């Protein structure tokens, strides 16, 4: 389920430095692939805080987490610019392809600065266009970056 619906731009959960027992924020968690991988990396003493604004994606994620057997993932329905998390509560944040999808980028950065502990890390991946496309393309589930 999580693999089929993956819409990230990188394998952050595999490439990021994620220590065992860490608290990981998966911001823009989508269907949960990064969250599930991170949950395995932090182990049973760690936790993953998965945040997404889309009810449809979170529904897919709940099913994927259930199928994975992960018990250390907490799912939050929230906008990225207003996180329902305590100050300085996150060791590692994973942000996989949400900045180009949300015009409130400065608020997202402010929220990340608020929730990530001193010495913590933010790992982000993003698509960057160098020029506009030659024709008007409407976004679809298959072409969400349009």
If you compute it from the alpha carbons, what radius of gyration comes out, rounded to the nearest whole angstrom?
15 Å
Order of helices and strands: HEHEHEEHE
Mean pLDDT over all positions: 87
- Give the name of the CATH architecture of the domain at 1-6 and 16-87: 3-Layer(aba) Sandwich
What's the total count of β strands? 5
Helix content: 25-40%
- How far apart the termini lie comes to 24 Å
- The CATH class name of the domain at 1-6 and 16-87 reads Alpha Beta
Report the sheet-strand fraction: 15-25%
The major sheet is characterized as: 5 strands, parallel
CATH topology of the domain at 1-6 and 16-87: Rossmann fold
Low-confidence stretches: 1-7
What is the number of helices? Answer: 4
CATH superfamily of the domain at 1-6 and 16-87: Vaccinia Virus protein VP39
Structural class, from helix and strand content? alpha/beta
In order across it, which strands form the biggest sheet? 3-2-1-4-5
Shape: globular
